[in-house]
Amino acid sequence: MKAGDLVLCYSTGIIGKGIRWAQRNLENSHFSQWNHVAVLDRKMGDEWYVIQAEASGVTNDKPLSSVAPGGKYEIVPLPDDVDDNLFLHFVRSQVGSSYGFLTILSCAMDMFLPNSVCLRRNNTWICSGLVAGGLWFSGFLEATRWGDLYTITPAEIAQVITPL
To answer: What is the pLDDT of residues 37-70, one digit of tens each?
Structure first.
């Protein structure tokens, strides 16, 4: 494990279940088991800390052991063509940004009215949008093909970064 590695999470709460349900309907992918994504930031003692977008905003103060309550997580290295330093620079620079509650609403509306409504506030992130932004910033070509990187889902991130 190293700083910049991605953490794909499966949690057991109602929000996690809702995200997985929505992803299965939109993407029909076995990657829909993942409902959250975070980034390994730094190791202090024996504990890794992560950067993630959560309801309180983009944070870097949570230990890895807390990111998937009641569930599981998997650590996945960044793809080879991602500049790790640029990726970490981007996600670290977003710490303190607000959570994208309107983005989540927009994602939910896309289930019923695909690509017809886009609601978002500047300087806000959802977990997978934050990672997608970091991938785009760091030169990951696949990120340039996403129609809207701000509303990318954890399953879509997992699909493009998980080795076959």
So the answer is: 999 999 999 999 999 999 899 999 999 999 887 7
Contacts for 114 with CB less than 8 Å, ≥ 6 apart: none
Q: What is the 3-state secondary structure (H, E, C) of 124-139?
A: EECHHHHHHHHHHHCC
Q: Which residues contact 46 (CB under 8 A, 6 or more apart)?
A: none
Higher pLDDT, 2 or 25: 2
Q: Which of 125, 118, 139, 131 is nearest to 159 (CA)?
A: 131
The pLDDT-based confidence of 134 (bands split at 50, 70, 90) is very high
For residue 64, which of 75, 78, 77 has the smallest C-alpha distance? 75
pTM: 0.83
Nearest to 16 by CA among 35, 2, 30, 31: 35
Confirm if 97 and 57 have CB atoms less than 8 A apart.
Answer: yes
Residue 147 burial class via C-beta count within 10 angstroms: exposed 0-12, middle 13-18, buried 19 and up? exposed
